[in-house]
Amino acid sequence: MAEAGSYFEKSVKIDGDFLVPPRTEFWKDIVVSGNIYLCPESHVKGNITCKGGVICRGCVVEGDIIAGEDGELRICDGASVNRILSTGDVYLRKDVSAAEVRGNNILVLGKIQCGKLMGKNTRVVSGEF
Q1: Residue 2 lies in a domain
Q2: pTM of the model as a whole
Q3: How many domains does the chain contain in total?
Q4: Which residues contact 119 (CB under 8 A, 6 or more apart)?
Q5: Residue 1 belongs to a domain
C-alpha cells in the first residue's frame, strides 16, 4: 500500500479492491476489477474503471468514472467528477460537482451541481445530512 501523499505517473491496474490513501495523485487512468475506495483529497487526472466504490470528500476526478452493474458508487461531500457512467446505483452527497451522471438508480442527498442527471429511477432528498 502506498503512503498518504504518494503519486503515480503511469496508469494503475488492480485485480480486486483498491484502498487509496488520502492525498494520493494519479496522473493517468485507474482500472480496478473490484471496488475502489478513494480516500479524502485524492486527485485522478485520468479515468477510473471499477465495479463500484466510494469517492471520499474533496476528491477530484478529471476524467470519467465508469462503474459496473453489480456495484454501488458513492460520491461523498464536495467531490468533483467530470462524468459518472454507471449501470448500477449511484449515491451523490451534498456539494458534489459533476458534468454528467448516468446510472440505474440515482439518489441525491442535498444540493449538488450537475449538468445532466439521467437515471431509470432518480430521487432527490433535501435537508441537512
Answers
A1: no
A2: 0.93
A3: 1
A4: 90, 101, 102, 103, 104, 105, 106
A5: no
C-alpha cell at 32: 480496478
Least confident of 2-11, 20-29, 52-61, 99-108: 2-11
| 53 contacts: CB under 8 Å, gap ≥ 6 | 17, 32, 35, 36, 37, 38, 67, 71, 73, 74
Burial of 42 (0-12, 13-18, 19+ CB in 10 A): buried
d(CA 57, CA 52): 16
Residue 96's domain spans which residues? Answer: 7-125
Determine, yes or no, domain membership for 69.
yes
Residue 83 lies in a domain: yes
Kindly write down the DSSP assignment for every residue of 21-38, as one continuous string.
Answer: PTT-EESS-EEESSEEEE
The answer to whether residue 85 scores a pLDDT higher than 80 is yes
Bridge partners, 86 (sequence order): 67
